[in-house]
Target: Transposase
Amino acid sequence: MTSTQINQENYTAYQPYMLLDFNFSFQNDVLKDDLSITILEVLRRINLSKFIDFLSLDPRSYDPVMMLTVILMAFAENGYASLRRLEKLCRYDVRYRSITNGCVPSYKSFERFINNTLKESIEIIAKEIYLYIQDEKALEEQILYIDGTKFEANANKMTFCWRGWSRCYLPRHWQKCMELLRQINQYFKKHEINIQYSLLKYPNIEYMIQIDETLENWLKEKGYIRKGRGKHEIAKLCDELKKSAVKMWQYAMQEDILGNRNSFSKTDPDATFMHMKYDYYNHTNVFKPGYNVQVGVSNGYIAYSYISGDTNDIRTLQPFTEGYKKLYGNYPKVEVTDAGYGSYENYSYCRSNGIKGILKYSGYEKKKEKITDKNRYQLRHMERDENGTPVCPVGYVFEVERVGVSLKGQYPKTTVYYRNKNCVECPHRSKCTTSKNGRSARIVPALEKMHREIDECLKSEEGKKLMKNRSVQAEGAFADIKQDFEYVRLHRRGESGVKVELELVCIGYNLRKYHNRKIAKNMN
Model:
């Protein structure tokens, strides 16, 4: 065993304090191109009294403008800042210390400010900041580039709950409850007791609770022992009935939480299990709880963000656009998206609301492929005659079998069903179809017309420019947030907590973008 000894004669103790007075002036010592200067400039130009009720605040609390300035500055610099990091910045960073006038708010103070003050007004504050930093020309054009991504929720990955469970087990427990009620009725009939319960076909939890309470009171009146070996037969049946009723109540609660979704996490009930683009479980397609986040970017700034539990982007376009209209008062003039949003419902929605929707559909890239022997028999590559009827590669024209009108969606959809009756003697039948009745086809004429309009738009110079800008702006915003600042997982739970967190991240992105553009403009 070896030990190190310090020679006390030649050893000088380290002084853990500054020997000189340290004076710092925010106006003189902070560089003019610092991000904090830009944030203070933006917040001074915005009337925060419209969104923050200063009169109802606790007089013992910190200044809300100061708290908001510190939070936005931390999010703009770091992409995301935790509550502990906010407290640490106020304690050790001289810029933050100057903004707080020497005070050091604790992480609990920031938590109370975010939950009690920012949650209700964060969306309006984000809107006002966006309107201030946005270019007037971009506001007039109102071109919105939309993209979506999935963020992993702050939830346990093994606490999933699926809709199939409640659909499977709720009827089973109800069937068991009805069987127990039959046994109870048989017991009362056998002993000539004038008690009988009706058997319902539809599960009713309140009915089961009422029966359980009635049986409990009856057992107490008769003085039957419910514990030990001498447990009464009705008491045993009542216990089984209670267990099944509790299970039914649990599955009914799961149905209420699920809503229109197929799954949720027990740790964060608002999160939905979905596939992520990067799966660190060795790419085994394991579901993880998360949120589908949509953003609309205009001129490089995030104008609006929307959080959804839908795993498919197609169903998010309409609520996203309605939320944008509710916030800004009108619909955007142009919406540009990728292939995940093009559908008959979305095309019809944009047309009915006066929106020029450049929504690429899912088969657009496949449609541009070179026709070969392998893909020439696909419906998208078949030619059409003057009536729009498909013609097979051999030259046989399909015949109309029937016409159907679907009223399931928001907009009526007419579908034409075709059948080719010349496939029996066709030498290429094995490559085209396996049906004994001939090749079938299903076409929505209105949708095909919309697809042709999208094709013409995307082939034009304007369409190419818009799609290029969408890749740069919308996907670039997520690249900056997720890749550059490594913000890939949510930290708050619940839809309201996730909403305020993502709004702060988007505001920080806009302020950082505005600052960089201002500095670049001044340098030129």
Summary: The longest strand covers residues 288-298. The two ends are 66 Å apart (CA to CA). The mean pLDDT is 88.
